[in-house]
Amino acid sequence: MGHLDHAAFGWLTPVLSYAMACIGAALGLRCTVRALGATGRSRRNWLITAASAIGTGIWTMHFVAMLGFAVSGTDIRYDVPLTVLSLLVAMVVVCAGVVAVGYGRDRTRALLVGGLTTGLGVASMHYLGMAAVRLHGEVTYDLTLVALSVLIAVVAATAALWAALNIKSPVAVTVASLVMGAAVSSMHYTGMLAVGVRVTPSGAALPGATAMQFVFPLAVGLGSYLFLTSAFVALSPTTGEREASASAQRSPDGATTRPRARTA
Q1: ∠123-124-130 over CA atoms, to 5°?
Q2: CA 210 to CA 208: how far, in whole Å?
Q3: Pair 203, 74: CB distance under 8 Å
Q4: Who contacts 148 (Cβ-Cβ below 8 Å, separation ≥6)?
């Protein structure tokens, strides 16, 4: 068995990957809160933004953490099509989960369906990403730890969607995103603990791209997308703020108008 190192760069990759998961979660929760306060096309756009943020955050977290993954006795390469597929799976499945919550009539059922869908999507993304790993040897899995990692993913996703439905204040969203980031990171490292590698030394060239050639530029690009979208969402007015502004313009004498009831 080859010796596995999950933090070849020390604390840099675990801390950076956790930060990415938290940013994606915070942005996703914020967008979901906005979506629930909007209707029609606006709601749909906010939900898609929320899903892309959470999906991007989770995928970037996984592959930033994978930059620190090393196995003694072999180089590591990544299959490019499978790696891209894992990103698309993260986006599509998280989108399905968020839409289930955003448009569900029965909140409890929508939450359970959305949490299960999103959690299984996160787990699928992780193990697709692992299937993209190319090395000299054979990768094995401890099925008990694999099952535990899937369970953590489903519980984390359900908790995050519950937070999106029930938490409105910025402080609470921040706390929820820190918890979700920790849960996603726990799922990742539980999944990585399940991995064993039987190394077969070989001088043959491995197929695929190195992490620095492919994964690192993509992670930086997606990280930049998260930061820019975060700035846009932070600066755009909420429904309540727009209504307050419109009310102020309609009643210059300062008379307070009752805010319109939010349609969920």
Answers
A1: 90
A2: 7
A3: no
A4: 190
- Distances in Å between the alpha carbon of 151 and those of 115, 118, 154, 229? 11, 12, 5, 30
Q: Is the pTM of this model over 0.90?
A: no
Read off the pLDDT of residues 78-110 as tens digits, 9 standing for 90 and up: 898 898 898 888 888 888 888 888 787 788 888
For residues 29 and 180, give the distance between their C-alpha atoms in angstroms, rounded to a whole number: 10
Block residue for tokens 């959470």: 54
Pick the range with the lowest mean pLDDT from 33-47, 126-140, 179-193: 33-47
Beta bridge partner(s), residue 198: 138
Does residue 106 sit in helix, strand or coil?
coil
Token readout for 209 is: 């791209």
Task: Determine phi and psi for 144, rounding to 5 degrees.
Answer: -65, -45
Q: What share of the chain is helix, strand, coil (3-state, %, to 5)?
A: 70, 10, 20
Instruction: Give residue limits of the domains in the chain.
Output: 4-201+208-240
**Alpha-carbon gap, residue 231 to 60, rounded angstroms:** 18
Q: For residue 196, which of 142, 251, 234 has the smallest C-alpha distance? A: 142
Instruction: Show the tokens assigned to 191.
Output: 């999944």
Cα torsion through 67, 143, 113, 183, rounded to 10: -40
